[in-house]
Amino acid sequence: MDVTYLKKLLTHVAEQNVSVEEALEQLKTLPYDDIGFANIDQHRNIRTGQAEVIFGQGKTPEQIAGIVEHMVNSNGRILVTRTDETAYETVRRIAPKAIYHKQARIITVGDMPEPVATKGPIAVVTAGTSDIPVAEEAALTAQYFGNRVDRIFDVGVAGIHRLFDKIDRIRRADVIIVVAGMEGALASVVGGLVNVPVIAVPTSIGYGANFGGLSALLSMLNSCANGIGVVNIDNGYGAACLASKIHIGK
Predict the structure, then answer these.
(1) Could you tell me the sign of the dihedral formed by the alpha carbons of 121, 122, 124, 125, in that order?
(2) What's the pTM?
(3) Phi, psi dihedral angles at 181 (to 5 degrees)
(4) CA atoms within 13 A on the CB side of 240
């Protein structure tokens, strides 16, 4: 249940278009809605400023669609991460206007909000093309929370001139998300060139000694550049949540 829905409901009550009893009936799902296989946190948007997002990995298509069905009437927008086309086809029976973003493995229901006009962008920067799926998860999540996003892809340290060609764009951002696999060096380089927070996302992209992203994670944690925070391996969603709270406070 998002804040927009609650504001409309309270406005209708104040204008006597909806009775108190009817409003109470609609608010019965607060603070959470128990649907048997899931407890939907309908209070999260009020409590934290960010509505609950459905983590699709490990859930069946029917479970994902069931959660969407219980959320769709009281949430202007719904985001499902780590999902696939099978789940999307099931969700579309509930929400025909749902969109599947294949590269990001995300389903969105409802229109993205208009970004805050007074804020600069969040830059989402990748070391390589192979890092783009994680970067797209971050970018779409940031847009879902009302941020303007500038995507700057494939500017890793193996050809550092590519990064320098884009540095002016990167410096115009209010927050920077750096997504990198292999040894994860890009986060340190960017962190040493900018005066805004950098959120580093290690990816599982790399050869054997990359250990599924562990080498990039440790490199980022050991960065000598100031002002860098690090999220877990492949966690584009978590990086975007943090960036949004830094950027617009929600």
Answers:
(1) positive
(2) 0.81
(3) -105, -145
(4) 29
